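Lab notebook page, bench 4
Experiment: in silico fold of construct C2
Operator: M.H.
Input chain length: 439 residues
Purpose: comparison with the prior construct
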Amino acid sequence: MRLSRFFLPILKENPKEAEIVSHRLMLRAGMIRQEAAGIYAWLPLGFKVLQKIEQIVREEQNRAGALELLMPTLQLADLWRESGRYDAYGPEMLRITDRHKRELLYGPTNEEMITEIFRAYVKSYKSLPLNLYHIQWKFRDEQRPRFGVMRGREFLMKDAYSFDLDEAGARRAYNKMFVAYLRTFARMGLKAIPMRAETGPIGGDLSHEFIVLAETGESGVFCNSDVLDLPIPPDDVDYDGDLTPIIKQWTSVYAATEDVHDAARFEREVPSEKRVNTRGIEVGQIFYFGTKYSDTMKALVAGPDGAEVPIHGGSYGVGVSRLVGAIIEACHDDAGIKWPEAVAPFKAAILNLKQGDAAVDAACEKLHADLRAKGVDVLYDDTDQRAGAKFAAADLIGVPWQILVGPKGLAEGKVEIKRRSDGARENLTLDDALVKIAG
């Protein structure tokens, strides 16, 4: 992609309304634009990152055996009345009346709708277990939307819903999502710690929040520092096997949000030098809620003996749009964003340091064409900006690799490669640079 043909409205000054790093950098880097309080348009650079994150989430859900569908953003109020949550949910729910006076709501979550879909089609235990998920926009009318996409009113979520015959099956489904979440966040370059948490309006008695430690986080958290060094399950983890050892390894080390924190246990179990008390950003949460929705909404299946029984359910959310902000909070410096390669909008940026110089232009064009031919998503800064402005823009948007092409280096047959994560630099021939970036 040529920068001269790309829409990248970079801001030179820090926006006054941005209180935290991720909000400030997303606005400055031309990733988002605020359209209303807590509601953002995703501009091309931001949308590319959002799509990369969404695809990782999708791949790991599919790997764990979940099946993707898509549910609408608007839901009938009667479904929520059936579950008893319509009046209980509170003012965060956006309630709507259509021209026929039907009461609707803009979905903040989808437990009711997925239960209604399930009960319409699944009648026997032979169709279980089942896990259905979608990636869809949600709306919660936050009283004080702030921190950009970290606490917006409209947001992109992955929510999955499991259906099992009994509690044992439901806990196996819970364990699959627990492991899938560990893998999902690790692939994005994040250390997300599963912490015991309150279930809130979702219900049930078992829940874990996946928390990225950050001083700008909205949650107070307590944990044993040993949890930071636990291994992530590998690519070939057997989701149909016994995942209990992995779950025990991660849950036996103290980690809890402030809502369920047990101070006495924390002091008893965690040596003083390993006690971590900080703040964190929630990027996902999983719940087992038993028969809460199947009881009220009559989601019944025939068991092995023919008798109808309510299914046991769980729900599993990932804040896809929130993850963009969380990754920036964890991966930045004073110059800008430092994207992990897996979620970067572009893998490499070619900086033409003397636009109009025949040799430099030719070298940049060749690199651009060769990298694209090898499947590398590359941004070519072919504008007539000064070199300093190009350096600043490349650092701000956080592309993992920068290829600096100038007449002095080319005179020696070399270009300079800069790694954004640590600033490391080396001079390479064009062929070696191609191998370095394309892998």
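Observations: The longest helix spans residues 167-187. The chain has a mean pLDDT of 95.
Next step: discuss at group meeting.
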